Amino acid sequence: MTLLDRATSSVSDRLSATGTANALELRQVSKMFGALVALADIDMIVKPGERRAVLGSNGAGKTTLFNCITGDFAPTTGSIRFFGEEVAAFPAQERIRRGLRRTYQISLLFAGLSVLDNVYLACCGVSRGRFSFIRPGRDDALMASAESLVQVVHLDDVRETKVEDLSYGQQRQLEIAMALSGAPRFILFDEPAAGLSPTERRELIDILTGLPSHMGFIIIEHDMDVALRVAESVTMMHNGRIFKEGKPAEIEDDEEVQALYLGGEEGLGHG
C-alpha cells in the first residue's frame, strides 16, 4: 500500500466507488455577469482517472469554469454532473463531501501553524469527526493520514515548520497535500505552477505525475511545459468558449493554437 493509499484508506464506499459514470459531465454550461458572457455553452466530458489541462489566455473563462464546477459560482444555465449525479444546484460543501477538491490561485493556508497541522486540519475538515475538540494521539488515524500526505508532496523535512516560513513553492506543495485529504475522487488545480522556480516546477511535475492513476484531475496552467507533461488531454478556451480539444502533442503542433496563443501578446506564457 502506498503512502497516499494509507492516507486515504478511510474513504467511504460512496466516495470510493466510481462506477461507470463520467467523472465530470458539463452540458451547455453558461455563466453571465450582467451583460458579460463569461462562459458560453460549455460541453465537456472527463472520464474517471483522466488528467486534463485547460489552457487559454487571461479572460478565456478558465477560472470561471472551475468556480462553476466547484460551486463557488452557480451557472446561469446548464447541467453539471459529478460521477453521474447532478450537482449544479449543490453548495460547495456538498460537492466536497462527494469527493471534489480544488486548489486556488492565491494560497489559502494557516500561516501561523505548521505544515503538519495544516494538513491535519484539512483531514479533519472532510471527516465525520471534524467538530471534535479532542487532541489527537499518536495513533490517531487522521494524524497518520496527514503525516502520509506530507510525505507524498515531499515536505517531510519541513513538517514542523510554520507556513509563514516556507518558500512559495513549498506553500503550493502544501496546498496539494490539503487537496488530497479525505480521498478525493477528482481535483481541480488552478495554476499550481504560477510563481515557481524551474526547480520547483520540476518538483510539482513529479508530485502530479506520481498521484494514483485512478485519481483524475483538471489543471489550469499558463506554463505549457508543465501542463502538457502532466495531462493526457487538453481543452483550449477562448472568450468563454471551448476553442479546441486534443492530445498534448496535437495541441502543441496545431497552427491555429500557435497563431492565437503563442504568436502575440496574448500568448499563454503572458498570464
From TrEMBL:
Residue ranges of every copy of the ABC transporter domain listed in the record: 24-264
Broad class of enzyme this protein falls into: hydrolase
SMART domains hit by this protein: AAA (SM00382)
One of the GO biological process terms: L-isoleucine import across plasma membrane
Enzyme Commission code(s) on record: 3.6.3.-
MF terms in GO: ATP binding; ATP hydrolysis activity; L-isoleucine transmembrane transporter activity; L-phenylalanine transmembrane transporter activity; L-valine transmembrane transporter activity
Superkingdom of origin organism: Bacteria
GO cellular component, as recorded: plasma membrane
Keyword tags: ATP-binding, Hydrolase, Nucleotide-binding, Transport
CDD domains in alphabetical order: ABC_Mj1267_LivG_branched (cd03219)
Signal peptide: none
PANTHER family in UniProt: AMINO ACID ABC TRANSPORTER ATP-BINDING PROTEIN, CONSERVED COMPONENT OF ABC TRANSPORTER FOR NATURAL AMINO ACIDS-RELATED
Protein name according to UniProt: Lipopolysaccharide export system ATP-binding protein LptB
Organism for this UniProt entry: Roseibium album
